[in-house]
Write a structure and sequence with these properties.
The complex is a heterodimer. Chain A is mostly helical. Chain A contains ten helices and two strands. Chain A has two domains: about 150 residues, no CATH class; about 70 residues, no CATH class. In chain A, strands 1-2 form a two-stranded antiparallel sheet. The longest helix of chain A is centred in the middle third of the chain and has 30 residues. The N terminus of chain A is likely disordered. Chain B has one domain: Arp2/3 complex 21 kDa subunit ARPC3 (Orthogonal Bundle). In chain B, β1 and β2 form a beta hairpin. Classes of the chains: A mainly alpha, B mainly alpha. At the A-B interface, α2, α5, α6, α8 and α9 of A face α1, α2, β1, α3 and α4 of B. Chain B: It comes from Streptomyces radiopugnans.
Chain lengths: ~250, ~400
């Protein structure tokens, strides 16, 4: 939302979760989150079970809880939205704490909070235990189009360069006594954005030419083609399978 | 604006995921053509580095904070900017990659909502802004001000359009019984305001790029006139002077329009900017209020159909409450939709006037210092004193 993405999530480690091939982890997290979203919101206990499952994985990965919890703060804007829901939604009202709240709005808020938090927690856990490069390789092994993987890898490789370029422009503005206070300064900032685009695009042209001169023909050579073993797939599938069991139980008890 | 997990139900998330995948597949083909550049010898291998760097730019520019005042600040979403600068296909690709990386590496936006986020932020904003931009550029006269106005309107419309599509998705697969009319009105109102900010930044950024590298602005390609060598009246076939002499006369300021886009909008064109801005504002007010009044009917219809078709299993989406909201609040919606439009127009006018006043003040100071230095474009019109010093024959 409003804040930038200043810090990367990855945390180096040697746990079993770290060692799993990236594509099995991505597939597992995706299946897990889909299962969570498909769970009926009335089955409150199921979300507790999901949280326990994630906590177990986090314990296995030996990523400190503080690391995970602070990274989950990215969700905060939606908490605000969820808090508003009981007030604006319609339907039967309930009296609580002296306020008239909508019953469906309360359920909706609970739904967004529970599923959103679990989704963010799962994503943070994935990003904390998998390197950037590995995630890209994993996406490629999951049959994402190679061109898209290449674009993403170029973005990651040069993202810091472009961000640094922007930081230098900011220093240059500051050293000339510029402070952005309001809308009046947007012209200067927009010129910064325009200059940044030109620099990024021209850098892309130079990168392309440099790669051409080194024999680039549009595809990247595949350096490691290690497929995941059956045991690795099984251990990665443990999380979504357990979640699926919980989900089915949730529908059953409804 | 990133939608988290659990906001929309599973079927809608999967459906928008399919839409996003299809759009990205189409864009992967289209981007090769867009990024091939002017040189014919460049092949498809140009796509990855350039689209990747554009994605890095979008990623970085989203971190550029634009202060609004009172300690708050906003940032670009970048859909309209990417569409205008690099074209719709590359724009969709760049934004999709940025959203994918944000979801996977920074846990911003849910994984199951990735398709929804790509559809809303990547596809809807890019397609709407590019279509509006091209249509406006085709209709308006071929001038620099037209490009500015088209950039403004297209960026302004792209944000409420995404909000409207979000409301539609929420009607299909929302997880709380929020009255749709209210949601739509609130979303459109808020996002029209956000769109004004997006439009101001996008317009200024496109202007900055146009001033330096007009060939890089994809959507405005073909608008810049090719440079022409003018021969003066001296160059009669009989006298046959040297070509250098005729070239020297081509700087004659009365000869006509500037050969290349002028480096910056001087106060001379303030009146045109005014007229263009006003026309753009009225146009978008009309279109926005059209959205506000037309969309609920379609939404109600779709939601009603959905509710009817799944009446048996879905209690929450039974058709009666939705139909009730629609009938009961339509008049109110129109009213409040129009109100939102009026607020948007008022804010646009106020903001535009503020910017113009600032530009003119600075322009006056510059013109007092070096009145003749900037006049190389040959435009003699001078709107400095309004009625005072406007020379005849140039308006």
């Amino acid at each position: 939302m409003g804040s930038g993405h200043a810090h990367r999530l990855y945390r180096h480690g040697h746990s079993p979760v770290h060692r799993l091939p990236a594509h099995t982890k991505i597939a597992a997290v995706l299946a897990f989150v889909l299962t969570v979203v498909a769970t009926p919101r009335e089955a409150v206990w199921a979300f507790g079970a999901y949280a326990l499952l994630l906590a177990a994985v986090a314990a296995l990965s030996r990523v400190p809880a503080r690391h995970l919890l602070t990274r989950m703060l990215i969700e905060v804007p939606f908490v605000a939205f969820a808090v508003l829901m009981p007030f604006v939604a319609e339907g039967p009202r309930v009296e609580a704490l002296g306020m008239s709240l909508s019953e469906s709005g309360l359920w909706g808020a609970w739904n967004v909070l529970a599923k959103g938090t679990l989704g963010v927690a799962a994503s943070v856990l994935l990003a904390s235990t998998t390197e950037l490069r590995e995630i890209l390789l994993g996406l490629q092994r999951l049959r994402m189009p190679p061109l898209l993987v290449q674009i993403a890898s170029f973005m990651l490789r040069y993202g810091d360069v472009i961000t640094d370029e922007m930081r230098r422009m900011r220093l240059a503005r500051l050293s000339r006594g510029f402070t952005a206070r309001g809308v009046r300064q947007w012209g200067v900032l927009a010129k910064t954005a325009g200059a940044l685009f030109i620099r990024a695009y021209e850098r892309g042209e130079r990168v392309h030419l440099a790669m051409l001169s080194r024999g680039y023909t549009g595809t990247m050579p595949a350096t490691d083609e290690t497929a995941a073993t059956r045991a690795q797939w099984t251990s990665a599938a443990a999380l979504p399978l357990a979640a699926l069991a919980v989900c089915l139980m949730g529908w059953w008890t409804l | 604006m990133h939608v988290p997990d659990g906001f929309l139900n599973a079927p809608v998330s999967v459906a928008t995921g399919a839409v996003a995948a299809a759009a990205v597949a189409v864009s992967l083909r289209g981007a090769r053509r867009e990024l091939a550049g002017t040189a014919a010898y460049h092949g498809a291998e140009r796509t990855a580095p350039l689209a990747g760097l554009v994605a890095a730019f979008v990623f970085a520019v989203q971190m550029l904070n634009f202060p609004v005042g009172a300690g708050t600040s906003g940032h670009l979403m970048g859909g309209a900017l990417a569409a205008i600068l690099v074209g719709p296909y590359t724009g969709v690709l760049a934004l999709s990659v940025v959203l994918l990386m944000q979801a996977l590496l920074f846990a911003d936006g849910g994984l199951t909502a990735l398709g929804t986020n790509i559809t809303l932020i990547g596809i809807v904003t890019v397609v709407v802004s590019y279509a509006v931009f091209r249509a406006l550029v085709r209709v308006l006269p071929r001038r620099r001000g037209s490009v500015t106005a088209a950039a403004f309107v297209s960026a302004l419309l792209s944000v409420p359009a995404a909000a409207a599509v979000f409301t539609g998705l929420y009607a299909l697969g929302g997880t709380a019984e929020v009255p749709l009319g209210k949601v739509l009105t609130a979303m459109l109102g808020v996002h029209t305001l956000i769109g004004v900010g997006e439009a101001l930044i996008t317009t200024a950024t496109v202007g900055a790029v146009l001033a330096v590298r007009p060939d890089l602005v994809y959507a405005a390609r073909g608008l810049a006139r090719p440079l022409v060598l003018r021969s003066g009246p001296v160059a009669t076939p009989g006298s046959g002077p040297a070509p250098r002499a005729t070239a020297a006369t081509s700087t004659d300021s009365a000869a006509g329009p500037a050969p290349a886009p002028a480096p910056a909008a001087r106060p001379a064109s303030a009146r045109k900017v005014w007229a263009g801005g006003l026309a753009a504002t009225l146009l978008c007010a009309g279109v926005v209020s059209f959205y506000a009044s037309a969309a609920p009917d379609g939404l109600e219809k779709v939601a009603g159909e959905y509710g009817i078709s799944s009446q048996e299993e879905e209690h929450g989406l039974a058709d009666s409450p939705l139909a009730d909201y629609g009938v009961a609040s339509i008049a109110d919606e129109r009213l409040s939709g129009g109100l939102a439009g009026l607020i948007g127009v008022g804010t646009t006018l106020a903001a535009g006037a503020g910017v113009l006043v600032a530009v003119r003040r600075r322009g006056n100071a510059g013109a007092a210092g070096a009145p003749a230095a900037e006049g190389s474009g040959g435009r003699a019109e001078n709107a400095e004193d309004g009625a005072g010093r406007t020379p005849a024959g140039s308006a």
